[in-house]
Design brief:
heterodimer, A: Rossmann fold, 5 domains, five-stranded mixed sheet, 15% strand, globular, B: alpha+beta, Glutaredoxin, 2 domains, four-stranded mixed sheet, 46% helix, binds flavin mononucleotide, binds iron/sulfur cluster
């Protein structure tokens, strides 16, 4: 074994931040200097705001470094050759003070237990960390009923959004009598602003496979699918590698671990339709059809893929299973609240300092997650709202920051816990714009089956558009509320039923902002272009004329070295001058 | 039709598999860059699924393209975090750089196709784009133009 081991965070986020270059630099440096070191890929440790990241260990030391550039690589490796780790750029270690030492200590890692630690393309790595031991335990020491009872006792609820108790779901599928049953992992992660599932798929694919195999055993399925969205090419690749490796080791396939249990798993790539995250649409899509939801009952547990009983769970739900079987239901239910057990992974993004993934016991408050763990705001502007639950969720305002995050408490605010995306917004975010964003998302993703989902959401969007242009009337607010109720009540699937939530929550908590757009014709956040004015501040303008050059409609005139002026009647509010001026002489109001 | 051999292999691979329509379409699109009229007819012949049903599937899913695309595909993320991080400015910069109007998707020289896509899942690095299979994050209108320069012939 090499003296020095280096693991580079190479999930999509790491790669986007330049981890490839760092990886190549490490390879070439150890080769050039003939250093006894090995370099490997690992998943996302969750500290995306510090990417690129690597962990380096030697006989006596282990440190994680972040915010890396190529020039840092030789210095760090040399310091490990000398067994005297460099302190600069260190972000996490238990050897000395480093800025993120507290970061992991405040988290409880069950789902992310291996993410950023093991090499996701190595089944050996997974097995060294107790991998597939739970499958063995379930198959050899537990009956199918005992597995279901254990999951029921753990209190685990589905992490795909609705929070349905997993053990109960398994029991439904178990009780169905059929010659064939299917188990499916929903890896469609369509919520914009959520990337928990991607990180697990990319960082610890075997934990999902093991959870699925245990589930298949419990319900009596012999075939399964991972339905993964095609926008995640790396996840698709890693799942495929993992399936092959698990087959080769006999954890998937016929007569697993010498028992009479057989289970075959395939990957299906999605083709870019958000509604396919809905269970019945997902089934239609696996069957090769348009992904349109259908009426339930019959529920998938009774009639799913090709009419056979089918159990669908989310990525994160499956990633919990092996841990529960290994450590027991009691250990799991120690975490969380009375009705929501265990931990939840959240994807922090938006105007937050420490964006990335965190896993915390359910029941922490929003404030703790955003300010204590997430480090608070990235910008100088104040916190305004946090968006939970994507297009089905809502915006929760400052006054409710002490809300506990569990399924039921979040639902009471009008948002939903959803799959775990948390997008933090500051004073520069316009709530009408946010509502418009989500509504146009669901509007374009609606499958079109239900009239209210298809056309009602379009009408709501038109009204929001009108308001954002300063053409709204007070009556519009009532019309929005009325339409919202109708869309909710007359939609077949969760997409339509929750589509009005972003509008309703912004109306509930930020009505003032709607009124400012309607009555004062102002966008307080300075986002809605039609309500903005750009003005040149005479005291700061040096008369360089750059603004006049970039203005696409020649609305700016003036003489060089004198103050320029914008003709408001010509201005189309594109902001080109604002972005160009080097002297901050243009003000946006 | 171009690439007849590769396409034949796709049919062999998925022969007699239930629910094979979408994977067949995905594989052929990968080969051809899009789904041509001829290949849709061929899929219909081979699978016995009607052309209208195939067309229905092709238009339902946003990943399927019925028109040829450029050599490089630029996906501009329009997820929540990117939206809040002004992805519209990035989109505008890409269009400007490639001389594309709001309605156009592919450059005249067939080098680039631009697509607005839902979340790419790299929210912590927003705003983000993906060129072919490579993701770029923390973009500004200027940096995105420089990145595209690297792909110019
Ligand atoms: C429009 C729509 C989109 C959905 N998208 C997803 C998704 O991307 N991932 C997911 O796990 N669940 C999604 N769901 C929820 C699933 O339908 C289903 O409840 C979930 O996969 C069940 O797994 P769980 O019990 O483990 O949560 C979606 C639901 C709706 C209505
Ligand atoms: S609610 Fe909307 S997405 Fe769901 S089935 Fe109806 S039209 Fe389709």
């Amino acid at each position: 074994m090499s003296k020095i081991k280096i693991k580079v965070g190479m999930a999509s986020c790491g790669r986007a931040a330049g981890a490839d270059k760092i990886y190549k630099k490490i390879e070439s440096y150890i080769k050039e200097k003939n250093i006894d070191a090995s370099v490997e890929e690992t998943g996302c440790i969750g500290m995306c705001f510090r990417e690129p990241i690597f962990e380096i260990s030697s006989k006596n030391h282990k440190v994680i470094y972040g915010d890396l550039e190529e020039i840092d690589v030789p210095k760090i490796i040399d310091s490990f050759v000398d067994e005297n780790p460099l302190q600069e750029k260190a972000i996490l270690t238990n050897e000395f003070d480093a800025p993120e030492n507290k970061n992991l200590a405040t988290q409880t890692r069950i789902v992310l237990r291996n993410c950023g630690i093991i090499n996701p393309e190595s089944i050996e790595d997974y097995m060294e960390n107790a991998g597939y031991k739970s499958l063995e335990k379930a198959l050899k020491n537990m009956t199918r009923e005992e597995v279901i009872a254990e999951i029921k006792a753990s209190g685990l609820r589905g992490r795909g959004g609705a929070g349905f108790p997993t053990g109960l779901k398994w029991e439904f599928a178990y009780k169905e009598k059929s010659d064939k049953k299917y188990i499916v992992c929903n890896a469609d992660e369509g919520d914009p602003g959520a990337f928990m599932d991607r990180s697990v798929l990319e960082g610890d694919p075997h934990s999902i496979l093991e959870g699925m195999a245990i589930g298949a055993y419990a319900i009596g399925a012999d075939e399964g699918y991972v339905y993964c969205r095609a926008e995640y090419p790396l996840a698709v690749k890693r799942i495929n590698i993992a399936i092959k490796a698990a087959e080769a080791k006999g954890f998937l396939g016929d007569n697993i671990l010498g028992t009479d249990f057989s289970f075959h798993l395939k990957l299906k790539e999605g083709a870019g339709a958000f509604v396919c995250g809905e269970e019945t649409a997902l089934i239609a899509s696996i069957e090769g059809k348009r992904g349109m939801p259908r009426i339930r009952p019959p529920f998938p547990a009774q009639s799913g893929i090709w009419g056979k009983p089918t159990n669908i769970n989310n990525v994160e739900t499956f990633a919990n299973i092996a841990w529960i079987i290994k450590n027991g239901a009691n250990e799991f239910s120690k975490y969380g609240t009375e009705k929501s057990k265990g931990t939840k992974v959240f994807a922090l993004a938006g105007k937050i300092k420490k964006s990335g993934l965190v896993e915390v016991p359910i029941g922490m408050t929003l404030r703790e997650v955003i300010f204590d763990i997430g480090g608070g705001m990235k910008t100088e502007k104040d916190f305004k709202a946090v968006q939970l639950g994507g297009p089905s969720g809502g915006c929760i305002p400052k006054e409710l920051l002490d809300t506990k995050i569990d399924y039921d408490t979040i639902q009471a605010t009008g948002a939903i816990m959803g799959s775990g995306g948390m997008v933090v917004m500051d004073e520069s975010t316009c709530m009408i714009d946010v509502a418009k964003f989500f509504l146009s998302f669901v509007q374009s993703e609606s499958c079109g089956k239900c009239t209210f989902c298809r056309i009602g959401s379009k009408r709501m969007l038109e009204i929001l558009d009108k308001i954002s242009k300063g053409e709204g009337e007070m009556e519009d607010i009532n019309t929005l509320k009325e339409l919202a109720v109708k869309v909710k009540d007359s939609s077949l699937c969760g997409l339509g039923q929750t589509a009005p939530n972003p509008v309703l929550t912004t109306l509930k908590y930020f009505e003032d902002e709607y009124i400012a757009h309607i009555k004062d014709k102002k966008c307080p956040a300075g986002v809605c272009t039609n309500l903005l004015t750009y003005e040149i501040q005479p005291d700061r303008c040096v008369g360089c004329g750059m603004c006049a050059k970039v203005c696409p409609v020649d609305a700016i005139s003036g003489e060089i070295k004198k103050v320029f002026e914008i003709d408001q009647s010509k201005c189309i509010k594109c902001g080109a001058c604002f972005n160009t001026c080097k002297f901050n002489a243009i003000e946006k109001k | 039709m171009k690439f007849p051999n590769e396409i034949e292999e796709v049919f062999t691979k998925y022969e007699n598999q239930k629910g094979n329509l979408i994977p067949i379409m995905q594989s052929i699109q990968e080969i051809e860059g899009y789904l041509s009229k001829e290949s849709i007819k061929l899929i219909s012949n081979k699978t016995g699924i009607s052309i209208s049903e195939i067309y229905g599937v092709a238009t339902f899913y946003s990943l399927f393209r019925l028109k040829p695309q450029g050599k490089h595909v630029i996906r501009v993320c329009q997820g929540t975090a990117c939206h809040v991080g002004n992805s519209k400015d990035i989109l505008r910069a890409v269009r400007e750089k490639l001389n594309l109007t709001e309605m156009e998707e592919t450059t005249a020289d067939n080098e680039f196709t631009i697509m607005e896509v839902a979340c790419l899942g790299c929210c912590s690095l927003s705003p983000v784009i993906m060129i072919d299979d490579t993701t770029y994050g923390k973009l500004t209108p200027n940096s995105v133009k420089k990145i595209i320069n690297n792909y110019d012939k």
